[in-house]
Amino acid sequence: MPAFTFEKISPPVRRAPTAATPKKPRGLISQMIDRFAERRGRRALQDERAMRRDEKPAE
Predict the structure, then answer these.
(1) What is the per-residue pLDDT for 34?
(2) What domain count does the chain have?
(3) b/e per residue, 29-47, with b = 16+ CB within 10 A?
(4) What is the model's pLDDT at position 51?
C-alpha cells in the first residue's frame, strides 16, 4: 500500500460576479488601420458598383 496519497483540492467558489474590467482605449496605430480599412472597403464597393453599371445585358 502507498504511504501517501494526493488529494485534488478544488478552487474556491466565486460567490459574486467579477466586475468587468474597463476596456483600454485603442491605440493610435489601431485607429489609423481601421480608417484605412474603412476607406478601402468603401472604394471597393464604389468600384464594384461602377463595374456593374458598365456591364451590358446579354441578349
Answers:
(1) 93
(2) 1
(3) eeeeeeeeeeeeeeeeeee
(4) 81
| 8 falls within a domain | no
> What is the helix, strand, coil percentage profile of the chain, to 5?
45, 0, 55
pTM of the model: 0.43
Residue 31 lies in a domain: yes
Give the range of the structural domain holding residue 43, as residue numbers without chain letter: 26-58
Pairwise CA distance, residues 46 & 52, whole Å? 10
Whether 20 is covered by a domain: the verdict is: no
Mean pLDDT by 10 residues, the chain (59 residues): 76 75 80 93 88 66
